Amino acid sequence: MQTNRPYTYRVPESLTNQVMVGMRVIVPFGRGKREVQGFVVDTNPEQPFDGDLKDIIALMDLEPVLNPEMIALSRWLAKTTYSFWISCLYAMLPNLLKAKTHRLVRLTDDVAEAEQLNLFDGQDSLDLADVQNDPDIMHELVKLRRAGKIRIEYQVEDRARAKMVVAIQPSLQFEDYEELLAAVPKNAKAQKRLLVYLQQQTGQTIPLKLAQQQTGLSPATFTLGEKRGWLKKVKLEQYRTPMTKSLERDQQVTLNTDQQVAVDALNQAIKTDQSPVFLLKGVTGSGKTEVYLRAIETALASHQTALMLVPEISLTPQMVGRVRARFGKNVAILHSALSNGERYDEWRRIQMGLVDVVVGTRSAIFAPLKKIGLIILDEEHEVSYKQEDAPRYQAREVAKWRAKYHHATVLLGSATPSLESYARAKTGNYHLLTLPHRVNQQPLPPIQIVDMRQEPRQGGESNFSQILLARLNDRLQKGEQSILLLNRRGFSSFMMCRDCGFVLKCPNCDISLTLHLSSHSMKCHYCGHEEAIPRFCPNCHSQEIRYYGTGTEKVQAELNKLLPAARIIRMDVDTTRRKGMHEKLLQQFGNHQADILLGTQMIAKGLDFPQVTLVGVLNADTGLDLPDFRASERTFDLLSQVSGRAGRADKNGEVIIQTYNPDNYVLQLAQKNDYDAFFATEMRIRQQAQYPPYFYTVRLMASDPQEVVAAKLIQAVSERLKTSQLATDTVMLGPTPRPIARTQNRYYYQIVLKYRHDPTLITTLTQLAHETQAKGNLRFMIDPDPQYFM
Ligand code: ADP
Ligand code: ZN
Ligand code: ZN
Question: Fewest CB atoms within 10 A around its CB: which of 146, 168, 231, 455?
Answer without folding.
Answer: 146
